[in-house]
Design brief:
The complex is a heterodimer of chains A (788) and B (294). Chain A is mainly beta. In chain A, the strands form eleven sheets. Chain A has a 22-stranded antiparallel barrel. The relative contact order of chain A is 0.11. In chain A, a hairpin with a 6-residue loop joins strand 24 and strand 25. Chain B has 294 residues and is mainly β. Chain B has two domains: 91 residues, Immunoglobulin-like; 141 residues. Helices cover 10% and strands 41% of the residues of chain B. Chain B contains three helices and 20 strands. In chain B, a hairpin with a 5-residue loop joins strand 18 and strand 19. The chains are: A mainly beta (788), B mainly beta (294). At the A-B interface, strand 27, strand 44, strand 45, strand 49 and strand 50 of A face helix 1, strand 1, strand 2, strand 4 and strand 13 of B.
C-alpha cells in the first residue's frame, strides 16, 4: 500500500514536471452493425502501452504529446492500425471489420490473441456468441448456460437442473446479469433452456474468482450478459425454426450511426405440435414458454448516450382449469453514459427486476387453491471510470437495491370457505460503494486493488421471529416470540468490508502468472433443499436469524500461449472458504411456512481445485479442452454427525472437449464430449417396518456417502452455411445434430422405492433401487437459422 | 403442499426421453437392530406392539420377530398395562370390558426389557378430529378419474392449533398401504405453519381415502368393498416422524426435485446408552366410519 501511494505521488509530480499530457479516447465498434466491442485491445506500439475498451466500448489513453501508431484489435476482427499525432486531446472512434478468413494471414500483430496472458483479470471466461452458436446442443437450440458448463470450474448437478455451480458454490451464489439487471431464474422448462435469446446477446463473461470490486452480491460468480444494441447501419433480421423454439430478431437503425433498436422474441411450440394428439384427460393442456427482449439506444452526441432495454419471459404449464403453473422474469433497464472529460467516463443505471410465479389448483369454486410469489428489485447504480494514464485506471461508484420479497400470496378455498394462508412480504435495502485502482508498479507487474463496502438493511414493515435453541442438533428450533416493525424501521443490519486484490506478473511475452484474493458477501438466499431447484423455490433476505453468507477465495494461475498465440493454456488453482451457508433440517417444510427460519441450519463450506484449459482459436480446427479437478464440501451441525461431507454437486473430475472443424466452405462439423465423476448421494443401509410400511434407514446417519456412476456423453452436429459467394441477402443455415450420440443412460440419481403393485397382507414387500436418467436416449434434431 | 407441487412438476417433465432402470446396489448393511412398532389407540379392542429386527434394505423377507422381551405401558405413572408375548414378535394387551387404553390427556410411558437392554419412550394421548360423514361418490366421465365409485370423507379439525392426524383407510379390513396412501394432516391441511384451523379438512384430504394406481391416479372401489376410515391422533413428534417417512417413501417420484435422504427420528430410546432405537411409540385417539360400496 505504501509503495502504491508513493507511485501515485510520483506520477502526480512527474505530471507537473513533464508538462501537459494529452488524451486519445473514443469508442471501438463493429463496422457491420455499430455494436460496441467490449474488451477490445488498443495498443500503442511505440510506448508498449495499451488499454482495453470498457463494457460500453469506451477507451481512454493519456500520453505525452507525440506521434503514435495505435493498433485496435478484437478476436474475430481484422486489426486496424492508425497513426496519430497527439498534440491535443483527440477523439478517435474506430470501427473494426470482421475477419475474413479467405484472405491469407495478413495479421498485424495478433495482440488480441494473447489476452489471456496479458490481461490482469484471471478466473474469467469470455464466451463469444458466435462460438456459443456452434456448440452442439440438446435439440439444436443454442444455449448460453449450457455452453458455460463446458468451461473449467463450472458444473451442474445434472441435466435438467436449473442453474449451474461455479467452483463448488451452490446455484444461488451466481449473480446473473442481463444488461446490469439481475435475473433470478435463468431457465425455461426447469433447466433445459436458458432465458437468453442468443439472437439478442452480444457478450457473455463469467467471473469465477478474482472478482473486481465493482461486482458483488453473490459469493461464487458473476455472469455478465450484455445484449446487442441493435444494428445502427442497416435493417437486419435473424431467426430460426428449431425443434423447440422458433425465433425472430429484428434490428434496425432509427437514425443511422446514432440510434438503433433490437427486438428479439422466441416461443416454444410443443403444445401447438402436440395439440392434435392430446385428447381426453390431456385436452386443454398448455405447455409453452416464450421470451421477448427489446432494446433501444440514442447517441445524443459524442459525450452522451442513452440505452433502454427490457426483457420479458414466461413459462406456462396448465391442464385446463384443473391446474396451472406459470413463472417468469421481467426486467427493465435504463442506462445513461456521460463523458465528463476524455478521461472520466460515467454510467448511471436504473433498473427494475420482477420474478414471479403462480400456481393454481381446482376447477370448482368451492375447492381451489391459488398461490403466487414474487421478488421485486429497484436499483440505482453509478459507475465512474477514471483513466489517469495507460498505467493507472481508477474505478469507483455505488449502488443501492431495494428488495420486496413476497414469499406467498395464497388463498385456499375449502368447502366454499376462503382461507388466507399468505405470508407477509419482506423488505430490504442493499447498498454498496466501491473503489478499484488498476495500476502498473513496474513494466512486468500489474495490480488491481479494490475495496467494496456493502451494507444490508432488513426493513419493516414486517415481523421478526425469535427462536430458541433446538432440543437436539438438527431439529427445528422452537419459536419464542415475535415483534412487529413499522414500515421503514430497521429490523437487522449487516455491514461487510470486501477487499479485492489481483496481481499479474508478466514472465515474458508469452507467459504470465497471476494471483488474486477476494472476499464476497451474499445477502439474499435461495431456499431450496431439492437436488435441482424448483421454480417455486423462494428467495429470502438475511434477517435477524439468517446471517449473510461470506466467502474468501484465493487463486493463483499460470498462463502461457504457444505457436504464435495459436494455442492458449490457462491453469489455475483456487481455494474458497465459505461461512454462514444455509442448509436445512431433515424433513424441512420450506413452502408456505412462516416459521421457515427455525428449520434452517447454518454451516461452513470449502471448495478447492485445479482448472486447466487449452484453447485453439484459429485455423480449420478450433476448440478447447477443459479439465477441473476439484472438491466441494460442507460441514453443518446436525447433518452427517457434524463431519465434513461432499456437497450434492461435488464432482472430483470434470472434463470436456469441444471442437469445430471446417470441412469445407459451407460445412462445419462440431463435437462435444463431456465426462465427469458422478455426484454423491445418500443411500439407506437397512429397512424396517412400521404399521405395514417399509421404512429405509441409514444406520450411521451419513449424508452423501455414495457416488452415482460417472456421467459421459458425446454430441455432434453438422452445420451447412449458405454459399459465401452468393450475393443474395437471405442467408440460411441448416444444423443437423445428435445429442447423446452413443445413447448412454446417464444417471441423474439413484433412488429407492417399494416395488409397484399392492402386496397381499402377510407377504413381504419388495424394495428396489432405480437409476433415473433425465435423457436416456439419443436425441436427434434439425433446425434452420436465417439472416436477412 | 409438497405433494401437490411435485405432482404437477413431474407431470410436465421430459417424460418422453427420460428413463429408469432397476440396478443392484451394495448397501453396506452391518447388523440388524431392534425395531419398536408401538402405535396403539383408545379403541376398546386388543392393542398390539411389535418388536422386530431390521434388515438389509434389499432383504425382501418378513422381518424376524423378537420374542422373550417384557413389554409394559404405564399410564399416568400409576397403571401398568402388560403386553403378553404371542410369538413372532407380537405383544398384545386386551382391555377389560368396554375400557380402552386411556383418555385424552393421559400420559403414557413405554417400557421394554430385552436381554440386558432397557428401552423406553413416552407420549401423550391427544384428541382426534370428527368425521361428519363418509360417503360414496359416483364419477362418470369426469376428467382424471376412471368411471366408478369413490369414497369421500368429510372430517373436521378441532379448533385450536396443534392437532395432527393420520388418516388410515382400510379396504375389506386391509390397510391401503402404498407409499402415496400414507396420509397425514396437520390442523386439517397439509403442513403446520399456516393459519388454517378448526375447519373441514381440505379437499385433497377428503379424496385421499381412495386407493391409488401405480401411476398416482385414484382408482374406483369395487361393488361390495367395505371401506373403513380411521382418523388417529398424532403427537407432534409422531407427525414429524411420519412426515419424513411420507417424503422418503415417495421421493423417487420427484425425479430431479428429489429431497435429500433423511432418517425418520423416532422417540424410543435405550435408557442405558441413550441412543435412539428404530421405530415409534404413539397412543392415538381414534374415530372411525365405515361404508360399503353398493
Amino acid at each position: 500500500m505504501k509503495k502504491h501511494f508513493i507511485t501515485i505521488l510520483l506520477l502526480a509530480v512527474s505530471h507537473l514536471i513533464s508538462g501537459q499530457n494529452y488524451t486519445l479516447s473514443g469508442y471501438v465498434s463493429d463496422a457491420s452493425n455499430g455494436e460496441s466491442l467490449i474488451g477490445a485491445s488498443v495498443y500503442v506500439k511505440d510506448s508498449n502501452q495499451g488499454a482495453t475498451s470498457n463494457s460500453y466500448g469506451f477507451y481512454s489513453l493519456t500520453l505525452p504529446p507525440g506521434d503514435y501508431t495505435v493498433v485496435f484489435s478484437y478476436l474475430g476482427f481484422q486489426d486496424q492500425s492508425t497513426t496519430i499525432n497527439l498534440d491535443q486531446n483527440k477523439s478517435l472512434n474506430t470501427r473494426l471489420a470482421i475477419e475474413n478468413n479467405l484472405i491469407d494471414e495478413v495479421v498485424v500483430t495478433a495482440e488480441s490473441e494473447d489476452k489471456n496472458v496479458r490481461d490482469l483479470q484471471m478466473s474469467v471466461n469470455k464466451l463469444d456468441i458466435k462460438t456459443i452458436q456452434k456448440v452442439p446442443t440438446l435439440l439444436g437450440e443454442t444455449e448460453i448456460i449450457r455452453s458455460i458448463q463446458l468451461l473449467p470450474g463450472v458444473t451442474t448437478v445434472g441435466e435438467g437442473a436449473a442453474g449451474f455451480n461455479v467452483r463448488g458454490g451452490s446455484i444461488d451464489q451466481n449473480l446473473v446479469l442481463l444488461d446490469e439487471a439481475p435475473v433470478y431464474n435463468s431457465s425455461h422448462l426447469f433447466g433445459f433452456f436458458s432465458v437468453f435469446n442468443p439472437d439478442a446477446v452480444k457478450d457473455v463473461q463469467l467471473y469465477k474468482g478474482g472478482i473486481p470490486a465493482r461486482y458483488g452480491g453473490r459469493l461464487s460468480s458473476i455472469l455478465d450478459v450484455r445484449m446487442k444494441e441493435g444494428n445502427n447501419q442497416k435493417f437486419t433480421m435473424n431467426g430460426g425454426v428449431g425443434t423447440i423454439f422458433s425465433r425472430l430478431a429484428l434490428e434496425a437503425p432509427i437514425v443511422k450511426d446514432k440510434s438503433s433498436f433490437i427486438v428479439a422474441g422466441r416461443r416454444s411450440y410443443i403444445d401447438v405440435l402436440a395439440a392434435p394428439f392430446l385428447s381426453g384427460d390431456f385436452d386443454g393442456t398448455v405447455l409453452n414458454f416464450y421470451d421477448l427482449t427489446l432494446k433501444s439506444n440514442f447517441k445524443f452526441n459524442d459525450n452522451n448516450q442513452l440505452f433502454a432495454s427490457g426483457y420479458f419471459g414466461r413459462d406456462n404449464f396448465g391442464f385446463g382449469d384443473r391446474a396451472g403453473f406459470n413463472w417468469g422474469n421481467k426486467t427493465g433497464t435504463l442506462r445513461f453514459n456521460h463523458l465528463f472529460s476524455e478521461k472520466l467516463f460515467s454510467n448511471v443505471t436504473a433498473y427494475f427486476s420482477d420474478y414471479d410465479y403462480k400456481i393454481n389448483f381446482g376447477d370448482s369454486a368451492e375447492d381451489k387453491f391459488d398461490w403466487n410469489a414474487r421478488i421485486k428489485n429497484y436499483s440505482l447504480k453509478l459507475d465512474f471510470n477514471y483513466f489517469l494514464n495507460p498505467d493507472n485506471i481508477l474505478r469507483f461508484g455505488g449502488q443501492s437495491i431495494f428488495y420486496e420479497f413476497q414469499p406467498a400470496n395464497a388463498i385456499a378455498i375449502s368447502n366454499d370457505f376462503p382461507i388466507d394462508i399468505s405470508l407477509d412480504s419482506k423488505y430490504a435495502l442493499e447498498s454498496n460503494i466501491f473503489i478499484e485502482n488498476e495500476f502498473k508498479p513496474s513494466s512486468a507487474l500489474e495490480v488491481n486493488a479494490g475495496l467494496r463496502l456493502s451494507h444490508f438493511n432488513y426493513l419493516g414493515k414486517g415481523t421478526a421471529y425469535y427462536y430458541g435453541d433446538a432440543p437436539e442438533l438438527g431439529k427445528e428450533k422452537p419459536i419464542l416470540g415475535e415483534e412487529y416493525f413499522e414500515s421503514g424501521k430497521s429490523i437487522q443490519q449487516y455491514v461487510n468490508l470486501e477487499p479485492r486484490l489481483a496481481v499479474k506478473y508478466q514472465l515474458n511475452k508469452l507467459s504470465s502468472i497471476k494471483a488474486s484474493y477476494n472476499r464476497t458477501t451474499q445477502y439474499i438466499h435461495l431456499i431450496s433443499n431439492t437436488t435441482a431447484s424448483t421454480p417455486v423455490d423462494v428467495w429470502t433476505p438475511s434477517t435477524n436469524n439468517i446471517k449473510p453468507q461470506i466467502a474468501d477465495q484465493i487463486a493463483a494461475g499460470y498462463f502461457r500461449n504457444f505457436s504464435n498465440n495459436q494455442y492458449e493454456l490457462s491453469t489455475e488453482l483456487y481455494y474458497k472458504n465459505m461461512a454462514h451457508l444455509v442448509d436445512y433440517i431433515d424433513g424441512a417444510d420450506l413452502i408456505l411456512n412462516k416459521y421457515l427460519e427455525g428449520q434452517i441450519l447454518e454451516g461452513v463450506g470449502r471448495a478447492y481445485g485445479m482448472e486447466v484449459q487449452l484453447k485453439k482459436n484459429e485455423g480449420k480446427f478450433s476448440g478447447w479442452l477443459s479439465y477441473t479437478l476439484a472438491r466441494t464440501e460442507r460441514k453443518v451441525e446436525g447433518i452427517n454427525n457434524g463431519d465434513w461431507y461432499p456437497s450434492r454437486f461435488d464432482q472430483l473430475h470434470n472434463f470436456s472437449m469441444t471442437g469445430f472443424y471446417e470441412l469445407s466452405k459451407r460445412w462445419t462439423f462440431s463435437a462435444n464430449f463431456v465426462l465427469n465423476t458422478g455426484t454423491p448421494t445418500t443411500f439407506p443401509t437397512s429397512r424396517y417396518e412400521q404399521q405395514g410400511y417399509v421404512i429405509p434407514n441409514n444406520d450411521d446417519n451419513l449424508r452423501n456417502n455414495v457416488r452415482i456412476p460417472a456421467y459421459h456423453r458425446l454430441d455432434i452436429s453438422f452445420t451447412l452455411d449458405s454459399d459465401p459467394n452468393s450475393t443474395k441477402r437471405w442467408k440460411g443455415q441448416w444444423v443437423f445434430g445428435v445429442y447423446n450420440l452413443y445413447n448412454r443412460r446417464n444417471p441423474f440419481s439413484i433412488y429407492f422405492k417399494q416395488a409397484d403393485g399392492r402386496e397381499a397382507p402377510g407377504l413381504p414387500v419388495e424394495t428396489e433401487a432405480i437409476r433415473f436418467a433425465v435423457v436416456g436416449s439419443i436425441v436427434p434434431s434439425i433446425s434452420y437459422n436465417f439472416k436477412f | 403442499m409438497r405433494i401437490y407441487t411435485y405432482f404437477i412438476i413431474l407431470l410436465v417433465s421430459f417424460g418422453f426421453i427420460s428413463c429408469e432402470d432397476v440396478v443392484d446396489i451394495d448397501t453396506q448393511f452391518e447388523k440388524p437392530q431392534m425395531v419398536v412398532d408401538a402405535w396403539v389407540n383408545d379403541s376398546p379392542t386388543s392393542q398390539i406392539i411389535k418388536l422386530t429386527w431390521s434388515q438389509n434394505y434389499f432383504d425382501s423377507q418378513i422381518p424376524e420377530g423378537i420374542d422373550g422381551a417384557t413389554v409394559k405401558v404405564i399410564r399416568n405413572s400409576q397403571d401398568t398395562l402388560s403386553f403378553s408375548s404371542m410369538g413372532k414378535g407380537i405383544y398384545q394387551w386386551n382391555p377389560s370390558g368396554n375400557n380402552s387404553i386411556g383418555e385424552i390427556g393421559d400420559a403414557f410411558e413405554l417400557s421394554i426389557r430385552y436381554e440386558n437392554a432397557y428401552i423406553s419412550s413416552s407420549t401423550t394421548l391427544k384428541r382426534t378430529a370428527i368425521i361428519d360423514s363418509l360417503v360414496v361418490e359416483e364419477k362418470m366421465d369426469e376428467l382424471g378419474y376412471d368411471d366408478g365409485s369413490y369414497a369421500s370423507c368429510y372430517a373436521v379439525d378441532i379448533a385450536g392449533k396443534g392437532d395432527a392426524y393420520w388418516i388410515k383407510t382400510f379396504t375389506n379390513d386391509t390397510l391401503n398401504n402404498k407409499p402415496r396412501e400414507l396420509v397425514i394432516s396437520y390442523d386439517g391441511t397439509f403442513d403446520p405453519g399456516s393459519s388454517y384451523d378448526g375447519l373441514p379438512f381440505i379437499r385433497p384430504l377428503r379424496d385421499a381415502v381412495n386407493r391409488l394406481s401405480d401411476d398416482a391416479g385414484y382408482i374406483p372401489y369395487l361393488p361390495g368393498d367395505k371401506v373403513r376410515v380411521e382418523i388417529h391422533s398424532l403427537s407432534d413428534e409422531a407427525y414429524a416422524y411420519l412426515s419424513i417417512i411420507q417424503e422418503q417413501l415417495t421421493n423417487g417420484d420427484n425425479t430431479i426435485f428429489a429431497l435429500p435422504f433423511a432418517n425418520a427420528t423416532g422417540n424410543v430410546f435405550n435408557t442405558t446408552t441413550h441412543e435412539r432405537v428404530l421405530g415409534f411409540f404413539n397412543v392415538a385417539s381414534i374415530t372411525k366410519e365405515e361404508i360399503t360400496i353398493p
